[in-house]
Design brief:
395 residues, 8 strands, globular, alpha+beta
Length: 395
């Protein structure tokens, strides 16, 4: 099979639209047909939603579908599945796992969450203590996870657990796919400073996971998890945005529409942040272009760092620009949102929600270390736990 070019992808997209007119085709049926036609993510293998085409040609398909008014798969609602679970399953899953999970994941029939962080293992994720013990063809999992976005909606979770406490912490971990509907999985809301509870804590009590839902070899879960984490940082910090998309958009609109609020100092700060936001947008475009040639690298950590800092500075400027109005908050009602919305609602919401940006997806402090060591080549921080069995570490 020859690699499709842009003209071939346009032809295939037009054929899809002719066979399944968006105006008269059920949304889910259209998305399934798009996946089966290889137009979901064109760089994925044939039969798994792709055509083995260059990743850069996805924009050709997307433009044709957008012009025809075709539905998308609501990527903000299923972002964890698209940005983290899918590339990990593609890289480490068996053929059966790829066939079982990728289609309903992309279509949005099954929502995913990420069971990584724990109360005692956040920034130092490899210190996790959730245990998975082999019992015949199953693994029995006990432990607690925290800061789990969308766990209240998810059918499936990507999970890392300790399978060999006698090994050093990075070498005794295995990676699993967990059914969130199984007995022993309990999801509790974590109410945030915004009033919402998009995050959750998840308790796992004697949860049985078949060995057929393990990703990668036993004990090599940290290697698999690194693929997830690198993709997570790209999906958060390097997500595609238009000019004046993201946090800078509402601040710029307020500036244009409310001239009575302007001061010289705020003008200078807004200009500086506007330029930085544009630089970050273009850098994200370049990063996504680099992904065409291979896997994401530590550069994604740098993008996620910039994303967190800019969101916090821009939202702070917006609140200050609004003066007394910026101190108002529209609604503290406890909500269980269906998607993570970094920029939604009012200025007060954006200001409070952005505080989490420097924590989720890797704390800014940890990401600074990654950039220093893996991008700049600075000396690695000394570690005294590298060759110590996890069970012997002080906790």
């Amino acid at each position: 099979m020859t690699t499709p070019d842009a003209a071939e992808l346009r032809r295939r997209t037009q054929a899809l639209l002719a066979a399944h007119p968006p105006a008269t085709t059920d949304r889910t049926d259209f998305l399934k047909a798009r996946f089966d036609a290889g137009l979901a993510w064109v760089h994925y293998p044939a039969g798994l939603g792709g055509l083995d085409a260059p990743r850069s040609l996805q924009s050709v398909v997307d433009a044709e579908l957008a012009a025809a008014g075709a539905p998308d798969n609501d990527p903000r609602r299923i972002g964890i599945g698209l940005g983290m679970a899918a590339p990990t399953i593609l890289g480490y899953g068996t053929d059966d796992q790829k066939r079982r999970f990728l289609r309903p994941l992309w279509v949005g029939e099954e929502v995913w969450c990420q069971l990584f962080s724990e109360p005692g293992a956040g920034s130092d994720l490899a210190a996790l203590g959730t245990r998975a013990v082999r019992d015949g063809e199953d693994w029995v999992v006990d432990g607690q996870k925290v800061w789990t976005s969308s766990a209240h909606l998810a059918r499936w979770a990507i999970l890392i657990a300790r399978t060999d406490p006698d090994q050093p912490k990075h070498r005794g971990i295995s990676y699993f796919i967990c059914d969130m509907t199984d007995p022993g999985v309990e999801v509790r809301p974590l109410r945030q400073i915004t009033g919402e509870a998009e995050f959750n804590e998840v308790f796992l009590t004697a949860v049985r996971i078949p060995d057929s839902r393990r990703l990668g070899p036993v004990g090599e879960g940290w290697k698999v998890a690194r693929t997830t984490l690198m993709n997570e940082r790209v999906s958060i910090g390097g997500a595609p945005v238009t000019r004046e998309g993201g946090m800078i958009g509402p601040a710029a609109r307020t500036w244009r529409e409310r001239p009575e609020l302007r001061t010289h100092d705020l003008h200078q700060r807004l200009l500086t942040l506007w330029v930085e936001a544009e630089v970050a947008r273009l850098a994200g475009t370049r990063l996504r272009q680099q992904l065409v040639a291979g896997q994401p690298g530590p550069e994604g950590s740098g993008m996620k760092l910039a994303f967190a800092r800019l969101n916090q500075e821009i939202s702070g400027l917006e609140v200050e620009l609004l003066g007394q109005e910026g101190l108002l908050y529209s609604d503290w009602t406890m909500r269980r949102p269906e998607l993570v919305d970094f920029t939604g609602r009012d200025a007060g919401y954006r200001y409070l929600r952005s505080k989490g940006n420097s924590i989720e997806g890797g704390t800014s402090e940890v990401l600074l270390n990654i950039v220093a060591e893996r991008v700049l080549g600075l000396p690695v921080e000394p570690r005294n736990d590298k060759d110590v069995a996890w069970k012997d570490l002080a906790r």
